[in-house]
Amino acid sequence: MTSDLFSAVPVSPPLSFPSRLLRGLRAAAHVFRGIFVPKQLRKNDLPSSPDPLADWCRDLLSLLGVDLTLHGEQKTAVTGPFLLVSNHISWMDICLIRALFPVRFIAKEEIALWPVVGPSARNAGTLFIGRHRLSSFREILSGVRDSMEEHISVAVFPEGTTTTGDTLLPFRTGIFDVCAKTGRPVLPVSIRYENSRKTSLATVSYTGGESFARSFWRTLGESRITARVHIGSPVFPEGANRKELARESWERVREGLLTPPVPVSGKESH
User: Fold this and answer.
1) Nearest alpha-carbon partner for 102 in 153, 62, 147, 146
2) What's the CATH code of the domain at 186?
């Protein structure tokens, strides 16, 4: 079920030490200010409500030199709560998705301790899962159902790990059981990072045993990063089981990664 999607090419030389340091200090100050950002999630049935956390995420991305562009389906393609699924490349993925959608995340419990990402994840109401405890997964499923009953959507990275962006790993199917049983749709989202030449940017990936500090420092070295977020057509359960939902969602995320970018409404967002 894995597949090569695209190959990364050499990128421009990284920014100088002083430029990286200045950008990092500004980002750190912004993360500190995030402590005071209201943590209440906006419900899906209140699209006109303010979303301070989304604004905070967009500002952080801007400080990191990230241009966020939105492609594919309109965000209003799904009404009511849904399960958002996406490929997973970087710690920035959380900010990208939260900048666009008022969702609660599912993430491994170690993320709560990460600098930069940990505070934003907690602010977003993340459901932290212990990967080696079966009881933890049951609690997560219950938490997802509770969120949807509160009209709050949930986002998850069903690959279960990060990649450099050149492949899409098979999706773990357990979380899709919530949609199979509640009838709530799945919204496939595809993320790709590019440099100024619109080619895949592998330097922002955060994989393997690499430390967060090293990944963060390397990302700070990129002068500009384009993050392309493709919103696919929703997957409605209609009697499908969790494995069938996972398979169809995987196909639509992969399709989004391969589809030439056409901005929503004919223009780039953010």
Assistant:
1) 153
2) 3.40.1130
- Position 266 in a domain: no
Give the count of domains, the chain: 1
Residue 2 lies in a domain: no
Q: What is the pLDDT of residues 140-196, one digit of tens each?
A: 899 999 999 999 999 999 999 999 988 999 999 999 999 999 999 999 999 999 987
**Residue range of the domain that includes 219:** 17-259
pTM for this predicted structure:
0.86
For 204-223, b/e burial (b = at least 16 CB within 10 A) is: bbbeeeeebeebbebbbbbe
Question: β-strand 83-86 against 66-72: which pairing, if any?
Answer: unpaired
Structure tokens at 46: 């209140």
Tell me, yes or no, whether 10 lies in a domain. Answer: no
Per the CB < 8 A criterion, the answer to whether 144 and 155 are in contact is no
Separation CA 117–CA 203 (nearest Å): 18
15 CB-contact burial (10 Å; exposed 0-12 / middle 13-18 / buried 19+): middle
